[in-house]
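hey so u asked for the seq, here:
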Amino acid sequence: MSDEKGQVALDFLLGMSLVLIALGFTMQFVPGLFISESAGESSLDYTAYRTAAILVEDAGWWENMTTNGTDWEHHPDNALRIGLAVDEEPLSRLSDSPNVISYKKIEQFMLLNESTVTEMLGLYNDVDGAHFTYGYNISITQNNLPLVLNNTRIVRGTAPDNTREAAKISRVVLVEKGTVATFTGNDITSASSSWATINVTGPFEENVSIEMRNLNISGTNPVFQNASLDGTLLTKTSDYTIYKKIGWANLPLYGSIDEEDTIILNFDNRLFNSSTDHRLDLKFQNIAFLNSASSFENYNNWSSTLYEPAYLSVEVWE
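ran it, structure tokens below
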């Protein structure tokens, strides 16, 4: 007679047991790769990560009884969320450009009061019915120095307290810094072979940058000498800065200019505060501009948004 009773092989039971043990171990172990074993809703690690993610990935949101949008920087009194990400579609509720940071949002973020920042970014905790805020430091830096926009260092909070346990996270971002027009040595029209002359039509809300590359070297020790606006000599550092661009880094320009160099001049937007054409003259030595003309190139026809890499860092402590 045949035996029709069901049988389960011992090796099958052993194999299934090993699979379940491995699965349980994986479920317990993998989350620890990303968040420390003590991380929870109230942990410093989680708070630092969440705050940085909100700032660089969220465009924010505001609303009143009739309308709403992500352009909270224009309606700070009605803001429900604050984020710094660029919002190309203010009604979308989301950013299409995470990690790309808005100039205007940064400016408004620096004007918010402390209670708004701590509440909207969740920089607080409730323990046994007691409400307390975290110490925090939020900064945007370039070349290990705080970013300066509109003469303001982009740093919020207090200096980190090295005597306390703290958590810190940094995110690589692109920061909107104004507008830039990029020219080669042959693009620029000139009234004199050693002068680059560009018309700039104001006004501007952000700084004005001019990028120049492939310059025509005409002698030894080619250098930038000065800049003047409508016939008035400008003051270096206070009116403008000049850099040599190397990869993503902007380094102060000292000494002579090489053929392969790309230089950037950054002008204070307040120089162009009227809605007229301003004549900007850039004087060089032993660099020739051969495209002479009676009318000059206009900055506004060549300009686009200027983005530069930076680090947004968030540090929190109890």
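Residues 62 and 76 are 8 Å apart (CA to CA). Confidence is low (pLDDT under 50) at residues 30-42.
lmk if thats what u needed
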